[in-house]
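Troubleshooting log. The previous structure file for this entry was overwritten by mistake, so regenerating from the original sequence record. Sequence copied from the archived sheet and checked twice against the printout by T.R.
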Amino acid sequence: MGIQLKDICFSYTPASDDPLVLKNIDLKIDNGEFLILLGPSGCGKSTLLRLIAGFDHATTGSAEVDGSSIDGPGKDRGMVFQDLDSSLFQWLTVRQNVEFGLKVNRIEAGERKDRANDALRMVNLTDHDRKFPDALSGGMKQRVQIARMLAMRPNIMLMDEPFAALDAQTRQMLQRQLVSIWSEVKRTAIYVTHDIREAINLGQRIVLMTAGPEAAIKREYAVPLEYPRDQSNQVYIDLLQTISKDIEEEVTKVWS
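Regenerated output below.
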């Protein structure tokens, strides 16, 4: 059944006259889909992701996963954040960080080890499992976050600009690795970004949001390209130009 958002409105101060952060959001995400939430800064992309995660609750409207209302965080949803350092426990090794959620959920030691091994393999960190976070590069830290999420085996992977703080070459490498992981685990992925090329490189479908406040869905784009994406392909170029023009319209609204 997937994820269903119906007429979602959201405000951090619902009792005030402040404008809504999100207004009339209707969105369906199929099981196993790789969906991108794209838009200018401040358009509510991360807020919408947090609603799906269950960290925040809609002011009005409904949010469901497989027909059940989202009323808080759940084991079926895993989250990767943008922040590289505060999201990891600095006093734990890579392996201990990956196993932490499993230990909290009382997963038996043997299964914890097997799950951690599998997750570390997928992010190519098997040989770094005894290192502490301060010995890792930015890209490696983000891979630890991804491995920790994968070890929990959520049905839905939520990612909030996880590669934004990384250099261009590292981002491109991690984008390809993420697609490889998603192809292997066959789970739903929802990824927030403001980078158009990243959106096209990763997503099967791109949802473009309007500028805030009262952000809504402006347009959706299918990405009919095989992985890895060829940036010289005319379809890629046309899509890049179309989305760039649409985002420029939204950014102009903010600055006008």
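The chain has a mean pLDDT of 94. Archived copy saved in two places this time.
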